[in-house]
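Appendix B. One record, verbatim.
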Amino acid sequence: MPAPALTSRSAAARTVTTVRADTAAGLLGLLPQGAELSWVRRGEGLVGWGEAARLEVTGPSALADAAAWWDEYTAGLDVADDLAVRGSGPVVFGSIAFDPTAGTSVFVVPEVVVGRRDGVGWITTVGTAELPPPAPVDGPAPRLRYADGALDPATWCAAVATAVERISAGELDKVVLARDLLVSAEPALDPRRLLRRLADRFPDCWTFAVDGLLGATPELLLRRDGQRLCSRVLAGTAPRGAGAEDDRLAAALLGSAKDRAEHALAVDSLVRALEPYCSTLTAPAGPALLTLANVRHLATDVIGTQHGAAGLLELVGAVHPTAAVCGTPTPDAATLIGELEGMDRGRYAGPVGWLDARGDGEFGLALRCAELTADGGARLFAGCGIVAGSEPAAELAETQAKFAAFQAALEG
């Protein structure tokens, strides 16, 4: 196994102050330009900027190393916290590689965090950092050009067909195959504009940004609030329609044997991974429909009560990757992804979210997202679950519907 690689940087400031603040309304509108950090849903959550500390880590013990680094960092802080609620006080934002043993995961402690939950707002600062005035998001709309990523559509469909053959031969039950799409922009994309558009179009998703990876994910991998654990599993997708057609598509998704089987695999993989850490764990007998602006998903909320002392990053490492983003059995699906997908996922489909000094936090999966590129453009990602009976053309259409979520933010 490769030796773990760890690069950390911390500023000298060791005083962290949290105060109640009404200015926390309109969180995304507060972000200054540069190094934006976000975890916002329906106007509540956290945004941050600046870097009081930073960790980049890879290797077999990446998440354990990150947890130890966070514990060591917070142990030496002088904290004044007027609220002492989930997300107040010291907070680290994290974006974890799809394969943490091989890819680089990034953790950032902002100099300023602004939060809002249940109508209560607060500001947390490290050292003498200050809240700057809101910066305007203006300038001309960028001119966009799209190009195929690692695989063109025809080649990707051939990869799906190969995956179906392997599944039919009994090698595995499911594999998630993803595509990327390259976007060039002139002038360079402004992530603040993208985040606001994503939040407006997908209010029920978590609008996230960490170290240049940003998106709006509908899938909550794991929330920890004291000993209470929550997860929202999504698998099985259908496009939206108009009028009666929309109702027909919704009923077809809920009644689809293929989509319900795919969904059950995702729920079962999460439950099996969480069971050793929970005294109670419940999941509904069947999925519900989650309706978004461009697609519907089959959705199941899993609730558990944790026992033992495992931290949130350990729990995230235990449940990731689920069948929803990798497949099942996990080792076989991961091997087939490496064989057929033709690209490095990086932090796409990896856990993304935040963690506070009490051990509470939220991590979703980095879906419906893009990674900003050095030339001012972006690399978009979309994937879908392949099971027995999957049709390459239908799976390609599903990825295009998922690309459309981010393209709407790009094109306004």
